[in-house]
Design goal:
By secondary structure, this protein is an alpha/beta fold. Helix content is about 40%, strand content about 25%. The chain has nine helices and twelve strands. The strands form three sheets. The chain has a six-stranded mixed β-sheet with strand order 6-7-10-3-11-12, with helices on both faces. A hairpin with a 2-residue loop joins strand 8 and strand 9. Helix 3 (about 95-105) packs parallel to helix 5 (about 140-150). The N and C termini lie far apart (about 40 Å). The structure holds adenosine-5'-triphosphate. Adenosine-5'-triphosphate binds near residues 12, 13 and 38.
């Protein structure tokens, strides 16, 4: 699955004639592992929500396999491209009910073995499936939401700070699972992800490319090692230094 972003622009909702971001041009190719980096409020989440057709945009075109998003049924698009939010939304009911949501929505059989494998991989293997999802901790909900998204068998995952509430052990488990996931295929089609993170160690570990947003633009789009060794822009240098100094 190949996605192309052709000059996507989004205006600020509160200021006429001003842009949240402008003319974002990029592509997501099979097997891409992209870390989307940038300061707070750049519109990274908004961009991912746009790419999963959860939000409109003002200018430009998004294409999947050469067809514009306007030619796709949103449900068909979202079956291939799944956005995983930072704040998980649980359906009221049990863990089992939440896991079965996907098959209910798509009218297919519930793939229990797959669900158990993913739950195990995110260290929720011992969870009681009869427990109310609302009673899980924030980090547990975050992992359950990821498993639910994986059950959709997407080809492109758009991950929005999905380990922000996790302890280091669970965070590593999620990273390992997603690295395995992206190396496998969905019905013969290669997978890819775009992963928003503020954790530079994580970006290094999970990505082979970086998209860096600043000043309302996609300022850098480069191979991960090159981005960290010698960022091309002053903005990226300041951004990396700022995070590193914040950690000391
Ligand atoms: N049209 C718009 N759509 C969405 N957000 C907008 C818009 N116009 C202005 N904003 C503001 O821009 C910011 C965009 O937030 P968004 O979550 O997309 O950024 P982000 O880069 O993901 O930030 P963070 O790293 O803090 O999560 C918010 O402060 C929001 O209020």
């Amino acid at each position: 699955m190949q996605m192309q972003l052709k000059n996507i622009s989004k205006s600020k909702f509160d200021v006429q004639g001003e842009w949240l971001f402008r003319e974002i041009a990029a592509e997501i190719r099979p097997n891409d592992r992209i870390a989307l980096l940038g300061g707070s409020g750049q519109g990274k989440s908004t961009l991912l929500r746009i790419l999963s057709l959860l939000e409109p945009f003002d200018h430009g075109t998004v294409l999947m396999d050469g067809r514009s998003s306007t030619e796709w049924m949103p449900q068909s698009w979202r079956k291939k491209v799944t956005y995983v939010a930072q704040k998980p939304i649980m359906r009221s009911g049990s863990i089992a009910f939440n896991l079965q949501t996907v098959s209910m929505l798509h009218g297919g059989p519930f793939e229990e073995e797959l669900a158990r494998r993913y739950m195990e991989a995110v260290e929720l293997g011992r969870a009681d499936w009869n427990k109310q999802a609302a009673d899980l901790s924030g980090g547990e909900q975050q992992r359950l939401a990821l498993v639910r998204s994986l059950m959709l068998r997407p080809e492109i995952l758009l991950l929005d700070e999905i380990t922000s509430s996790l302890d280091p052990g669970s965070k590593q488990a999620v990273e390992k699972l997603l690295l395995e996931w992206v190396s496998e295929a969905t019905n013969g089609a290669a997978r890819s992800y775009v992963w928003i993170t503020h954790d530079l160690e994580q970006a290094r570990a999970v990505s082979n490319q970086v998209w860096f947003m600043a000043e309302g633009c996609l300022l850098e789009r480069t191979e991960t090692a090159a981005f960290f060794q010698s960022p091309a822009t002053e903005q990226a240098r300041v951004f990396i230094r700022g995070i590193q100094e914040g950690k000391r």
